[in-house]
């Protein structure tokens, strides 16, 4: 008999499951706490649950995380896990410690169908959506691994959490796996689960406009948007989804989202690609776009409106792209900063373990023919043809999504 994996349920789902077993709501809350706050996977550990309930659970349910294929640790404390999700597929989660926070970057799909030109996950093609349990299992594993490693006795009332922030910026487009994503976000937000605030939980999207609108109603967490280009001609070639949802439509939706967002700004991500989108004229075009967005946001009563995050590209051979030189990134940032747009340049973390999402998983599985996919990419990328000679210049054996 197949039994239910309890990692697949948010609290409401677990209540329904327990009611089917003839149990009251508060039992579901107890169970939920055991799983997520204490990391329990064995019903016999759950000492405050009646023996009769534990017996029922053993026949109807299980708590199953994801097998870890590898765990790599960087000298800077970054940890990257590669999880087995079956059928030769693997996904990654990356923990990034900082002085005042611990951030986990979580994957939502095995592969990705969006196919952004600069992203190694996109180059791997799409395998399948992760289930809610597979998304939650990345946080469940990381949090309880890190907590156990601290090895100090917890005091009553102490904040147990090691992971204070989660970003859905790993492998996959989260909003193309909406049905599994939203219950997973609810587990992360639930005070009986991980108790994250909506400000500390970020969904990053390449711009799936209808699902951004739904997210603003169903579970309005912080939003990051992968922009990467200041005009449609350029963005069409970098983020193919732009052909369906062009920049003006995307920005209109971002403005609507601000009415529900936990912060008064949207973060726009911009991956800096040598000779592609990193010139002063691109910065000025981006500035004009952001100034209009900021003014419209202010007119609607949203203070800051937008922040820009410039991301150093993690090169991988199939992309034919190179990282912008540091001085060009600084010059680009200066144009925006001097005009008052809040702009940061993302620090690279975990370089010694290739901690940009998408790298290890690509080594583990490569289901689709690289040649066929690259031929398709080249057809789609006519606007970038003048840059083709670069492809032969960069043969470094690393790859990665800019969203790590
Ligand atoms: S950047 Fe994100 S949306 Fe684009 S291909 Fe990579 S994982 Fe998919």
From TrEMBL:
PANTHER family: 23S RRNA METHYLTRANSFERASE, RADICAL SAM CORE DOMAIN-CONTAINING PROTEIN. It comes from Hylemonella gracilis ATCC 19624. Its EC number is 2.1.1.192. Specifically methylates position 2 of adenine 2503 in 23S rRNA and position 2 of adenine 37 in tRNAs. m2A2503 modification seems to play a crucial role in the proofreading step occurring at the peptidyl transferase center and thus would serve to optimize ribosomal fidelity. One of its GO terms (biological process) is rRNA base methylation. The active site is at 92 (proton acceptor), 357 (s-methylcysteine intermediate). This is Dual-specificity RNA methyltransferase RlmN. It catalyses: adenosine(2503) in 23S rRNA + 2 reduced [2Fe-2S]-[ferredoxin] + 2 S-adenosyl-L-methionine = 2-methyladenosine(2503) in 23S rRNA + 5'-deoxyadenosine + L-methionine + 2 oxidized [2Fe-2S]-[ferredoxin] + S-adenosyl-L-homocysteine; adenosine(37) in tRNA + 2 reduced [2Fe-2S]-[ferredoxin] + 2 S-adenosyl-L-methionine = 2-methyladenosine(37) in tRNA + 5'-deoxyadenosine + L-methionine + 2 oxidized [2Fe-2S]-[ferredoxin] + S-adenosyl-L-homocysteine. Residues 380-404 are annotated as: Disordered. [4Fe-4S] cluster binds at residues 112, 116, 119. Keywords: 4Fe-4S, Cytoplasm, Disulfide bond, Iron, Iron-sulfur, Metal-binding, Methyltransferase, rRNA processing, S-adenosyl-L-methionine, Transferase, tRNA processing. Its main location: cytoplasm. One of its GO terms (cellular component) is cytoplasm. The keyword Iron applies. Residues 98-352 form the Radical SAM core domain. Reaction proceeds by a ping-pong mechanism involving intermediate methylation of a conserved cysteine residue. Pfam families: Radical_SAM, RlmN_N. Its cofactor is [4Fe-4S] cluster. Belongs to the radical SAM superfamily. RlmN family.
């Amino acid at each position: 008999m197949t039994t239910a994996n309890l990692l697949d349920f948010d609290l409401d789902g677990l209540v329904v499951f327990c009611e089917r077993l003839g149990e009251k709501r508060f039992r579901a809350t107890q169970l939920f706490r055991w799983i997520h706050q204490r990391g329990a996977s064995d019903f016999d550990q759950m000492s405050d649950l009646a023996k009769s309930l534990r017996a029922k659970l053993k026949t109807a349910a299980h708590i199953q995380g994801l097998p870890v294929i590898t765990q790599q640790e960087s000298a800077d404390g970054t940890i990257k896990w590669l999880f087995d999700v079956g059928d030769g597929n693997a996904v990654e989660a990356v923990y990034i410690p900082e002085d005042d926070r611990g951030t986990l970057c979580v994957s939502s799909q095995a592969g990705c169908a969006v196919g952004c030109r600069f992203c190694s996950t996109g180059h791997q093609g799409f395998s399948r959506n992760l289930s809610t349990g597979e998304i939650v299992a990345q946080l469940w594993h990381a949090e309880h691994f890190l907590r156990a490693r601290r090895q100090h006795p917890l005091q009553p009332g102490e904040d147990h959490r090691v992971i204070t922030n989660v970003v859905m910026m790993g492998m996959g487009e989260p909003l193309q796996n909406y049905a599994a994503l939203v219950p997973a976000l609810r587990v992360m937000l639930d005070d009986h689960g991980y108790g994250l605030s909506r400000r500390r939980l970020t969904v990053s999207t390449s711009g799936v406009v209808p699902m951004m609108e739904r997210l603003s109603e169903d579970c309005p967490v912080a939003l990051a948007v992968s922009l990467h280009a200041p005009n449609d001609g350029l963005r069409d070639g970098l983020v193919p989804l732009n052909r369906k949802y062009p920049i003006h439509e995307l920005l209109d939706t971002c403005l609507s989202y601000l009415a529900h967002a936990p912060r008064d700004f949207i973060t726009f991500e911009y991956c800096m690609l040598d000779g592609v989108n990193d010139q002063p004229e691109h910065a000025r075009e981006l500035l004009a776009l952001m100034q209009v967005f900021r003014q419209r946001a202010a007119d609607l009563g949203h203070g800051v409106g937008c922040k820009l995050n410039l991301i150093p590209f993690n090169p991988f051979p199939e992309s034919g792209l190179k990282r912008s030189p540091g001085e060009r990134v600084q010059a680009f940032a200066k144009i925006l900063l001097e005009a008052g747009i809040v702009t940061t340049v993302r620090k690279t973390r975990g370089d010694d373990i290739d901690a940009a999402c998408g790298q290890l998983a690509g080594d583990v599985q490569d289901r689709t023919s690289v040649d066929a996919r690259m031929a398709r990419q080249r057809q789609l990328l006519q606007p970038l043809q003048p840059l083709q000679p670069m492809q032969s210049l960069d043969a470094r054996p690393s790859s990665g999504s800019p969203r790590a």
